[in-house]
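no rush on this but wanted to send it before i forget. theres a chain ive been looking at and ive put its sequence and its fold in C-alpha cell form underneath. i want to understand how the C-alpha cells follow from the sequence so walk me through it. thanks a lot i owe you, the record is right below:
>
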Amino acid sequence: QAKDHIMNRNITRIVAIAATLAMGTSLAACGGSSADSSKGHVYFMNNKAEVVDQYKELASMYTKKTGVQVDIQTGAAGTYDATMKSELAKDNAPTMFNVAGFDQFAKYQKYVEPLQDTDVFKLLNDTGKAYSYTIDGNSYTLPYAAEWYGIIYNKELLTAAGYKQEDIKGFADLKKVADDIQARKAELGVDGAFTSAGMDSSSDWRFKTHLANLPIYYEYKADGIGSTDAIKGTYLDNYKQIWDLYITDSTCDPKLLASKTGNDAVAEFVGKKAVFYQNGTWAYNDCINGGMTDEQLDMLPIYIGAEGEENQGLCTGSENFWCVNNNSSDADIQATLDFLYWCVTSEAGTSAMADKMGFVIPFKKAKDSTNPLITIANQYVADGKTSVDWCFSTMPSEEWKNGVGSALPCLLYTSPSP
C-alpha cells in the first residue's frame, strides 16, 4: 500500500537529507536489517507493556506469513520517552512507534510521516479519522484503540457481601458498600474492598492519569472547555475523597502502597482478595489468565461525588496512536504500512487486538470484540448513560501528570487511617 504516496514524497526527502548532511548531522535512518532486506523491516517501539506479549505473537505470525522481520521493543513504564530518544538516534531506529496524547506527539512531530494518503489510513472509520492528529491537512497518527475503564468488580464477592450493582449509583453508595466490606473483610474472606493502589511506575498511571481524568472532565465540562494550561482544581476535593477510599478500604496498609505494583493489584483481584479493581477493558486477559470467568466480571463507573453522576457511564476514548518514522527507508516504510494494514484487516490481527488486547479498533474491517468488558461498556451507552471523555490527552503536560503522581504518596499520610 501507499506506493504512490511514497513516490510523491521522495523528492522532499532527498532535499531534506541533503540539507541535513550539509549541516553535518546524521539521520536516524534505514529502519534496520532483516534476513531479506528487499522486503523491508518493521521495528515497533511500543509503550503499552500490558499487551507486549500479544504484539510479539502478532509479529511472529506476520514474519512466518510474509518473511518480513518484525521486531517489538517496549519501553518500561516511566522510561518510554528516554528510550524513544535513544532509539530514534540509532541507525536501526524504530520504523513505527506509539504516542499517547498530543503532548507526546509534539515531542516526536519531526519524525512522523503523513499518512492520509495511505491505504491503512483510508480504512479508519469516521471516529478514527476524527481522533487522528491533523495539521495543515496532513494526518500523522493512526488511532488504534478505543478503550474503556472504570472499576472492575467480582460479582460473586459483591453478592456474597449482600450487594448488587444496582445498589451503587454514586460515590456515597460506593463508599457505604466499600466501608462495609472493609469492616467485614475477615468474615468475607478478603483482604480489602479495593486492590492496592500501587504507586510504582507499573501502577501509578491508573491514578495520576486515569483517576485524575474524572475531576478534570467535570472541570472542563463546567467551564465549557476542551483543554487548559492550568487546572483550577474545582473538583480536587472529589479527587481526594475517591483516593482516600481507595487507600483506606484497601488490601494493605496505606504506608505500603508506595512499593506496590500493578502485578500486586492483579494478583489480589484474581486471587479473590479484593472486590474492586480500577482498570480497563485491556485488563480482561489478566483476569481470565488468573483463573477468573466471564460470569465473575462486571464494571462500575468511577464515582467521585460529582453532581449528576448517577447518569454517568464508563470513561472512554483513545490516546493511543501509531506513528510511522519518516526517516526510515522507503522499503521499511512500505513494510511498516503493510504490517499495519494486516493488523487491522486480517482475522488474526483484528482478533488479537479485539479479543486479546481488549481494544475496539476504529477501522472499517475490524472484528467486533468478544471481550465481555467491552460488551458491558457498550451496554452503559445503550442504557443512555453519559460516557466520560478521556481528557488526559489534553492535560497540561506529561510533566503535570508526573507531578500529580509524585504528590499522591504525600496523601498517604494525611488521609484517615482504616
